[in-house]
Predict the structure.
Amino acid sequence: MSDFRRVNDSITVSPQVAEADMARAAAEGFVLVINNRPDGEDPSQPPGAAIEAAARAAGMDYLHVPVRGGPTPEQVETVRAAVEAAQGPVLAFCRSGTRSIVTWSIGRALAGEDRQTLVDQGREAGYDLSGVLPA
């Protein structure tokens, strides 16, 4: 079972999820799953299509925004828009959750959210955003 790490009411991030985690995610109220992990990054990871099928079968939407290294401006904007448009909480995942929270937090910072608030939310979820977000 994956480690869902709540950041705020809108977003939770997680290390790699499994198909079986999608029923739990739906039961916890998530409406959208964002996969920030490229397919084939590790031979042991489940294919994105399998996670997508499980998410949709559980009644959630699914979005694949694969991030390699740092997110591009387009990836940041895609994630920002998807989280803002979601009609409920979003679960984003990658290998460790880092790319997911970084991509989301950059979008929030560019939208004008307070940097320190984002850094604090990241810390509470177990991630250090202090070196990622613009001062």
Summary: The mean pLDDT is 96. Residues 6 and 12 are 4 Å apart (CA to CA). The first strand starts at residue 5 and ends at 6.
